[in-house]
Amino acid sequence: MEASQNSQKPKFNSKVKISKTALRFAGLGTTLAASIGLGAFGGRKLDEYMGAEKPLGTAAGALIGLGVGMWSVLRNIQSK
What is the pLDDT of residues 4-38, one digit of tens each? Predict the structure, then answer.
């Protein structure tokens, strides 16, 4: 009787595990892209406000966004 009960239990599907992992890393990639984009956007607005000839604010904002995004991604990976 026990053998028939064990066979009726749903087994953990490896496709579900793969899709959860893929979704998690897609979310981390989105987080990184959004932080870089927001940093670059903020830097561009700063360049426009300051009337800068060279897009130094945009570059600095993108680098700051990269740093913040990487910090967020690494913190998220370490916590799980």
Answer: 555 555 556 666 777 888 888 899 999 999 999 99
Provide CB contacts within 8 A for 55, sequence distance 6+.
43, 44, 47
Residues 6+ apart with CB under 8 A from 39: 61, 62, 63, 64, 65, 66, 68
51 φ, ψ (degrees, to nearest 5): 70, 35
**pTM of the complete model beyond 0.85:** no
Question: Which amino acid is it at 4?
Answer: S
How much of the chain is in helix, strand and coil states, percent to nearest 5? 85, 0, 15
